[in-house]
Specification:
6 helices, seven-stranded mixed beta sheet, alpha/beta, three-stranded mixed beta sheet
Amino acid sequence: MNTPVIGVLALQGDVREHLIALAAADAVARPVRRPEELAEVDGLVLPGGESTTISKLAVLFGVMEPLRARVAEGMPVYGTCAGMIMLADKILDPRSGQETIGGIDMIVRRNAFGRQNESFEAAVDVKGVTGDPVEGVFIRAPWVESVGADAQVLAEHDGHIVAVRQGNALATSFHPELTGDHRVHSLFVDMVRANRAPESL
């Protein structure tokens, strides 16, 4: 059985929920805070939270540069909400000192769907996810202003891009880890499994 080991960047945000969702999607899930822990995983989830805080803590814990290097080398990575912002090559309205990992040729607008008290749920059709629409939980969510030629739009809501994939990088504006529906995590686990396949032959 090709069971991938997938980390969740455990600096801030809804780490526990992602660990549960990944385990339900047949992955071995581990929290990751330091470079040596990052080196032991086949893929990584960047959770929701506060993107500026996550950025600064990633630098503080010495994991930002190793993470950029692994993503550039093709390690599968999935970002939700703040994690989507972290994967953007460009933020439209960054805070002072805010850095990204990059990996998806997209421009992202922070908090585009409104403040905390404007959070909402909506059914979202996501390419690559079979069955009924995914229930998207949007909490101070970003949206994608534009994507480059290599990025594939997987979903839109209310005329705005809310899910994108480029190669081994996946990003959603919403939080599937909060719904009990693990199909988006299963999609990512399949991406990680496919990336490991040549090595396991």
